[in-house]
Amino acid sequence: MSEKQNYTIAQWFQALATGFQNAGNALESRIAALEKRIEDIEKRQGIAKEDTSASVTETEDSGHKIAFLPGPTSLGIFDNAYASPKFMEGVSLYRFEKRDGKRASVYVENRPCVVKAFHNDPSSQYSACERTDKYFPKATGIKTINPGEATFDGEKWRIDRKVEIEYVV
Hints:
With about 170 residues, the chain is of the alpha+beta class. The protein is built from 3 helices and 10 strands; from the N terminus they run H-E-E-E-E-E-H-H-E-E-E-E-E. A hairpin with a 2-residue loop joins strand 1 and strand 2. The radius of gyration is 24 Å and the shape is elongated.
């Protein structure tokens, strides 16, 4: 390659890098403007920002505090930031019935979308569930035989005893 070609390639890369930097700056400005608009709308509608830092999102159901959570990490840890007071299809897999500030019974929700999620991604159950039967690819339900136990550390729920489940055909 000649020096002229190298210089032209170097110029091209510099222009490309400058273009990416300008696009990144423009996106950051647009995101900041959108966040400000959202904040203004929330203020007008009286919507408070959600604070999930210290407590489980809960709802009362027959004397128990209920929270629905998606699947745990491979270590059996559920992030409380994803807790919801209502079952959310496509997100919620587990139901936590909180007994006190630190302990909860854990159940697998018996809903078609949860069965489908367990079929599509079996890893969502390995760290939180023990199956009492063999896997049934045509299962239509999941039955909780014995609830699991979890402990809350202020931010996350840790599985102490796995949920015992069996598939319903």
